[in-house]
Amino acid sequence: MTWLTDPFSVDFMVRALVGGSLAAVLCAVVGTWVLVRGMAFLGEALSHGMLPGVAIATLTGIPPVLGAAVSAGVMVLGVGALRRRARLSYDTSIGLLFVGMLALGVIIVSSSRSFATDVTAILFGDVLAVTRADVGGLAIAAAVALAVAVAFHRPFTALSFDTRKATTLGLHPRLAEVVLIGLVTLAVVASYRAVGTLLVVGLLLAPAAAARAWTRHVASTMLLGAGIGAAAVLVGLLVSWHAGTAAGASIAAVAVASVVVSRALAAVVLRRTPTPTPARAVAPAAPRSAAPSREGA
């Protein structure tokens, strides 16, 4: 069992495991609603849209998380402005802002010759460099996301199925949509430190998608997704330690692979589970006709 215990005998691997597991919990809570609402494209766009803010923050010496939050906020506000004023569809607005923010980030990075090593950490993450402060921030973000998900469970559910009915019931679907977008932003910004902007979407979507093969309720999907995400972090770190691969990319690859494994196992179990045969309806016996009378014979 030394192959399992030796990697976690050093402090930075323990911090990576704890920080990655907290990111998995955060992403499972938010990713479940991302799957239900079909917001995967928004999550991917936000992860790429953070690049200009992180780049500027790194160059100016301010905390990168603050730059990522500001950049993601600009992205969300820009999408809303394009939808209202330019009358573009939701996915078109996201696509335009996604390309624009990514292009701006590349321009900022290319203008600095000393930025090559930093951009690698931004894009692909450095979970092995997670500090105690990062772990604390992830714990707070996970707690906030869980509290908001509990408080807005009914509005989120109504928003996912019937917006007009949610309005009729006084559940404020517009507010629920804004809060849900805020949760996606929180998950992406808080988790990019562990797995990077390019790979955070994998941790946001894959564990929840793997759990969805076994569950049908939001709460159970979140719980199982968090477990699958934490397992992906553990396996990814072990692969990275023994194979010498990038830790963030290994975690994301294991998370995506878990979807394939989970769906395949669910299909096998479903195939082997006998389908109960419905009981045959027994037709009522026809009443016996009275024997013919022999009096007239």
Element layout with pairings:
Layout: H1 2-5, H2 11-37, H3 40-49, H4 51-60, H5 64-85, H6 90-110, H7 116-124, H8 132-151, H9 153-161, H10 163-168, H11 173-195, H12 200-212, H13 218-243, H14 247-272
Helix pairs in contact: 2-8, 2-11, 2-12, 2-13, 3-5, 3-6, 3-11, 3-12, 4-5, 4-6, 4-7, 5-6, 5-11, 8-11, 9-11, 11-12, 12-13, 12-14, 13-14
Describe the structure.
With 297 residues, this protein is mainly α. The protein has helices at residues 2-5, 11-37, 40-49, 51-60, 64-85, 90-110, 116-124, 132-151, 153-161, 163-168, 173-195, 200-212, 218-243, 247-272. Helix 4 runs antiparallel to helix 5 (64-85), helix 4 (51-60) packs across helix 7 (116-124) and helix 9 (153-161) packs across helix 11 (173-195). The longest helix has 27 residues, at 11-37. The chain is globular, with a radius of gyration of 26 Å. Residues 293-297 have low confidence and may be disordered.
Provide a compact summary of the structure.
The protein has helices spanning about 1-5, 10-35, 40-50, 50-60, 65-85, 90-110, 115-125, 130-150, 155-160, 165-170, 175-195, 200-210, 220-245, 245-270. With about 300 residues, it is mainly α.
SS strand fraction: under 5%
Largest sheet: none
Backbone shape: globular
Q: What low-confidence regions span 5 or more consecutive residues with pLDDT below 50? A: 293-297
Estimate the helix proportion, in percent.
Answer: over 70%
Residue-averaged pLDDT: 82
Distance from first to last alpha carbon: 98 Å
**β-strand number:** 0
Based on CA atoms alone, the radius of gyration comes out at 26 Å
Number of helices: 14
H/E topology pattern: HHHHHHHHHHHHHH
Structural class by sheet pairing and helices: mainly alpha
